[in-house]
Amino acid sequence: MEKLEKRKKQAEQGAGFFGKKLLALSSLFFLQGPMGFAGLGLGMLGLGAAVLLLAVSGWFITAAGVAALSLATLHSFNYLQPAALIRLLAISRTLALYGERIVSHDGILSLLQRLRLWLFDGLSSMNRFRMAGFGSGELMQRMLADMDRLDQWPLRGLAPWAWATGLSALVSALLFWLQPDLAVIFLLFIIAVWGLLPCFILLPVLRCTRSHTRMEGKRRQFLLETLAGLITLRTTGAFRARGKALEAMDSEILGNQWRIQVFGLVAQLFILLSLSAVLWMVVFHGGRAVEAGQFSGAVLVGIACVILGLTEVFLPLSATFQSLGFTLEARDRITDSVAGAREIKGGVRSLPQNLSFCLENVSARQKNAATGPQGVSLTLHRGDSLWIEGPSGCGKSTLAAVMAGWLSPEAGEVRVNGVALIDVEEGCLRRHVGLLDQDVHLFPMMLGENLRLASPLAGDDLLMDLLDEVALGDWARELPEGLNTPIGDYGTGVSGGQARRLALARLLLMETPVLILDEPFEGLDADTADALLTMLRRRQKDGILIVISHQHLKGSFTHYLRLSPA
User: Fold this and answer.
1) What would the mean pLDDT of 116-141 be, rounded to a whole number?
2) More confident of the two residues 123 and 389
3) What's residue 337's pLDDT?
């Protein structure tokens, strides 16, 4: 329970940052907490030590060479302190950069945790009908690849600019203290990198990354559809055309990757040429200062080494533009994925006590479906039961989705306790209307954990009583670890009938007044199905029971509805 409460707080914290129209890029940094700032500080220290190490080494070698020109200066030259400083800087660089990797990745993992909790919190408020606008491949792209790109932004996009800015300020101050003209030369380079580089590189890279990301999702969805219909495509001779279309998508993706790399190389070339120009100008103007006696030649070599050392600081900036492009596109796509979830979280949070369930001239169709239920009207009250039957393809599951609020009707209205479903807050709706879908979902957890998804505080005795009611009690007691037995990925450790009854037990644990069951007896023998139906009637005697089944059901129902294909 402590873990559950901790995760809930983390999800709420993420929602506080992300509960806007768009994710703020700054929130991707602040959600790392203190580790984000510690990573920036250690990175700055490591890069600063690396640049200073090169500068001190250049100064030391030059000063030692100059001192060796005469015996007097050679004997008076103190090489112990510079040598100790060089060793200190080398050790500091190694420790700081290593510490930055550890601290930054700890912060990134914390960010990734909050991002995933926020995303799954939004998606869990939706369902397969509300998410029908996204193909499985497209949704997978958004949940995996786009999420990974979001958590890379603080390290690959933000940190290089922060480090470059901080070290540039320190170098500018140092040059201004030595020779103001040198500081002006360096500031011209900074203006070029900060101003010209984004102007010429950013927009083209953003276009390429946008095209690349969208094509990746489209290709993934296209590939999954092709594999799913592979036999049909081969028998109809359409596989070759699909293959050519896939090759065209691959070519476009590779083309975008090539263009992104070219822009990155152009940015690197610009940075290197600019640093080279700065180096020559600093050496030229610094040479005059050496001739004027303002500082020694060894100091000038140290300054030149500082400029050379900044290559390690500025070159990573060339990759930040593509990181920004991928992050912006991933942000927009993920925000769009959970936009529907945010829209449905408002509404009525408490329903009237008079239990009723009403459909008024309801018509609906699933996405891309040719037909669906048309003009369905009925009214149910406390204690009523409804049996819906009809041939395959007539829209029974579609009607169930509409009644549960999983799918919006094309016409008409569904009301629970006199309130339209569209006006009911999602959590409130789930507490009042429960649906057992044909596609049951069991998670790779223990048996008891799967059941407690409906009620985290449920005890073992209550769970065993529920399993007894769905004719799984004896089976559960014979398991090696009882309720603590893992059921495998996607419920592979149980049969289809057992999985359906486990999902039914989980739904019954929620104790919803309105219970909608879509083919609950599929794969069960007649005696087990009759026993389950008797149990359901008993449990819902003070509620509303709706059973959708093409099988013949024993006993009487207060209402009966038969759907036709038309």
Assistant:
1) 62
2) 389
3) 66
Nearest residue to 515 via CA among 477, 482, 542, 491:
542
Q: Nearest Cα to 124, choosing from 22, 7, 32? A: 7
Mean pLDDT of the chain: 83
Rounded to whole angstroms, the Cα distance separating 483 from 475 reads: 11
**Tokens, residue 45:** 């220290």
Q: What CATH architecture does domain 2-340 belong to? A: Up-down Bundle (1.20)
Domains 2-340 and 356-562 in one fold: no
- Alpha-carbon distance of 95 to 342, in angstroms, equals 45
Q: What is residue 130's DSSP assignment? A: G
Burial of 539 (0-12, 13-18, 19+ CB in 10 A): middle
Q: What is the pLDDT of residue 136?
A: 54
- Residue 517's φ and ψ, nearest 5 degrees, are -120, 120
Residue 3, pLDDT score? 44
Q: How many H-runs (helices) and E-runs (strands) does the chain carry?
A: 22, 9
Q: Residue 422's beta-bridge partner residues?
A: none
- In our burial notation (b when 16+ CB lie closer than 10 A, e otherwise), range 288-297 reads ebbeeeeeeb
Q: In this structure, are strands 411-416 and 419-420 parallel, antiparallel, or unpaired?
A: antiparallel
* Mean pLDDT across 280-289: 88
Length of the chain: 566
For the chain, the domains span: 2-340, 356-562
Give 164's contacts (C-beta < 8 A, 6+ positions apart). Answer: 193, 313, 314, 317
Per-residue pLDDT reduced to its tens digit, 154-203? 888 889 999 999 999 999 998 888 888 888 888 888 888 888 888 888 88
Q: Can you give 401-452 as a three-state secondary structure string?
A: HHHCCCCCCCEEEEEECCEEHHHECHHHHHHHEEEECCCCCCCCCEHHHHHC
Q: Cα(448)–Cα(482) distance, rounded to whole angstroms? A: 8
d(CA 286, CA 179): 8
At 11 the pLDDT is 43
CA dihedral (381, 384, 389, 393) positive or negative:
positive
For the chain, the straight-line distance linking the first and the last C-alpha, in angstroms and rounded, comes to: 50
In a 13 Å sphere around the CA of 146, the CA atoms on its Cβ side amount to 28
Q: Is pLDDT at 94 greater than 90 in this prediction?
A: yes
CATH code of 356-562, in short, is 3.40.50.300
Q: Are 395 and 373 in contact (CB under 8 A)?
A: yes
